[in-house]
Amino acid sequence: MGIRDYARRWLGIEEKRETLELNKDDRRLAELLGINLDGINVRGKGALKIDTVYACIRIRSESVAKLPFKVYQEDDFGVRKHSKHPVAKLLRLRPNPFMSAFDFWKVTEVQNCLYGNAFINIEFDRRTGQPIGLWPIDASKVTIYVDDDTGLSGVMRPRSKLWYVVDLGYEKRKIPEDEMLHFRGGLTLNGIVGLSPIEQLKLSVENNAHANEFVNKFFRQGLQVKGLVQYVGDLNEKAKEEFRRKFEEMSSGLKNAHRIALMPIGYKFEPISLSLQDAQFLENTQLTIRQIAAAFGIKMHQLNDLSRATYHNVSEQQREFYTDTLQPILTAYEQEMTYKLFLDEEIEDGFFIRANADAILRADIKSRYEAYRTAIQSGFKTPNEVRALEEDPPLPGGDQLIVNGNMVPLTDVGAAYRSKGGDGDQQGEDDAGEGNSSDADDN
């Protein structure tokens, strides 16, 4: 018992204590902690409230999720697909009992976009050593530790090890590097931790959030302009607040839009007019959207901005999105999973994981069929292989490679003409010989 409590009890003063139960979403809890909820929070999940950020992350995550990851083996006989491999089943069906493959990759890419890192805990079968489950972890709860073997140069040495410490709230778990898939979605300065795109774009994202808030308040106030109220005389603070409250109730809000506001005698309202064009609001907003989209590798037509779109440049931009934006992401996924999901002997035998980018053409039947025709006529795919891609049954005779019969090796170009010319010359000589023989007989 402290001195103050002892004095209160000795003087007979009863201390009244009030118990207040608050959950983590209660606004009063934030006020007690001194947190201003009226400010704009663009950290982590809060960035998803910004429409441009939400759209960019949705496009990237769904683009990655719709591509199937498959297991292949490359050896002296070529490249073969292994659809029955345990890793193939894991990636194709359900990486864990609670997620489909589509949802799993959406979660992974969203984490990558928000935090610059995505962490997947690998569950192994203790008997076979094969992975049997992939469990995404909230990147905000993971801390990376490096066993200090870097020396004075700051460069990791072969004996250095990575550890991932996951804060579960009630305990912290230490996970070794070989049991964690670590995808770095953003830039990285050291090859260990990825930089969060949201943190690097904080000013642009906040600018977009403030623009949305401005428009929201603009409509909520009934599109009423701000101004000054002039009054000849003097008012105390209480009178000022009362007048301001009544005047705003009368003139603000969508219900009061385009209605006439009455002013008391002695008051005069002078509007302060600042249009969106004067503030270059639309130009600044469009610039911010383009900056955010460029950072995420999203093309403007994907955000429904067709102001500068033509059929040709939209097709070209869509191709650039797959090659310049998706391909680096998929390559990082493929390399990390190939290294950590296969046994050492399987890696030595040539097993690897590859995303099937052909699924991109599934929605474009014309481009798909033109690609099939080129593949068949060029002789590097059989008709049955193409039918398998379309999930059609094989047909007799469809396992043979076919090619245009007019195609010949480069070294044989013109051989037919040379042969024909030689035959002609020989024929001429023969005719001449026959002529000479006839003349001799006549003589």
Q: What order do the helices and strands come in, and which of them pair?
A:
Elements: H1 3-11, H2 27-32, H3 51-65, E1 69-75, E2 78-81, H4 86-92, H5 101-115, E3 118-124, E4 131-137, E5 142-146, E6 162-167, E7 172-176, E8 180-183, H6 197-200, H7 202-220, E9 226-231, H8 237-251, E10 267-272, H9 281-296, H10 311-341, H11 344-348, E11 351-355, H12 365-377, H13 383-389, H14 415-442
Antiparallel strand pairs: 1-2, 1-11, 3-4, 3-8, 5-6, 6-7, 9-10
Helix pairs in contact: 3-5, 3-9, 7-9
How would you characterize this protein structure?
The protein has 443 residues and is an alpha+beta fold. Among the domains are: 3-32, no CATH class; 41-220 and 307-363, no CATH class; 410-442. The chain is 43% helix and 14% strand. It is built from 14 helices and eleven strands. The strands form four sheets. It has a three-stranded antiparallel beta sheet. A hairpin with a 2-residue loop joins β1 and β2 (78-81). The protein is extended and about 115 Å long. Mean pLDDT is 76; it is low at 434-443.
